[in-house]
Specification:
The chain is α/β, with parallel strands linked by helices and 487 residues long. The chain is built from 14 helices and 28 strands. Helix 6 runs antiparallel to helix 7 and helix 8 packs across helix 12. The radius of gyration is 29 Å and the shape is elongated. The structure holds MU-OXO-diiron.
Length: 487
Amino acid sequence: MTIHIKNNVHWVGQRDWEIRDFHGTEYKTTKGTSYNSYLIREQKTVLIDTVDHRFSLQFIQNLEMEIALDEIDFIVINHAEEDHSGALAALMAKIPNTPIYCTENAIDSITGLHHHPEWNFNIVKTGDTIDIGNGKQLIFIESPMLHWPDSMMTYLTGDAILFSNDAFGQHYCDERLFNDEVDQNELYEQCLRYYANILTPFSSLVTAKIKEVLSFNLPVNIIATSHGVVWREDATQIIHQYLEWADNYQEDRITIFYDSMSNNTRMMADAIAQGINDVDANVAVKVFNVSRHDKNEILSNVFRSKGILVGSSTMNNVMMPKVAGMLEEITGLRFKDKKAGAFGSYGWNGGAVDRIHTRLTDAGFETMLAMKVKWKPDGKAILACREHGRQVAKNWALQELAGQSLLLKALDEPVQSANDDLTVTHADLQQNMLCTVCNWVYDPQVGEPNQDVAAGTPWHEVPDSFLCPECALGKDVFVVIEKERSA
Ligand code: FEO
């Protein structure tokens, strides 16, 4: 199957709905992907890139339904990674002397991957051109480290098509090829995921390369990527989006991720998140357990965030392994201009939190004081976590915080821990009890009939076996909140 792109240019690529892992298991392709190859038929017939080696047979069958393979005058390989050069060996077996145009670095990687140094390689550099007839030329633009040292882009004059390879692409599969045809939210999400997880370390190069391309003053009507959609409607929108993402991008967002042995660090994470929200209702707070959530989604959220909070229980005096792995990934992605803090529950020692703090600092984050809780957080500890979250919100606010919630006013005043039963001197029918984890409120005048707690039961008479109906935690996470303030 081919898809018409413009004039004598057709897509001859391969869709891959099934793929779920890329770069080993480092990138979860939740929406599949495509390997985009293009056939240009002017006076010269040119193939731009191939497809993943697993689809060599289909790729060649497909091409042979369009043209006799020996009609291909030359092949351009913009990038040698096997998802693009993978079918080259099968193709070259049929047309062995066909010239291949690529960067010098690509010869190294193509030869290293395919073991055919005898292939007819031709090195191109930025600004080199090839006349393909009918008044059209190909112009080559090296783009090293976007995202491999061998990467380049190819520009087709006349049709004003930029074959950008990985840059501006997404791991996204849809039977519709063009950007204006697909679900825009899905497309944006996958573009961001791709940038955040693959291109973030090279952001300064992204900016420099885009400025270089723009300095050529070439019109760009279509951006034909090697993965996902072809940008034809407002094609340069993705270039402007990349410039924004490359400029130390952040939103008013805080990402919290953790791993938790006994749910204690999780309780801290939830309380800290609520504390942030107490103070700043505008900030988006996202909470992830690294052992349960998609790693790439977490990293995408880190990319979008002004700051992150990283938690772990202490195990063998170090952090839990999945948290350590995430910190290694974050270090490699070289995020800039972001704040961070560590937190965690511990039993015998708190080594994990100190190690997280050090790792975050070493990774270039502006770190704040860490937060530790010994054993399972009681009501006082939960309040302390919540207060920690409130301080985070205040210190990291992007704009002056206007107005405070009624709940915040209540929390600004001294509050007794539910553990301190003897100090709860107003635990009567005029006092509600707030679950500090989920905000469910116990009203003594209502009771909790589902747990046989009759209306009119003051908190100190509620049995110790009582569990919060929302989050199933015990009485120790409840604090007093005066009824008129909880209304
Ligand atoms: Fe799509 Fe770098 O390979």
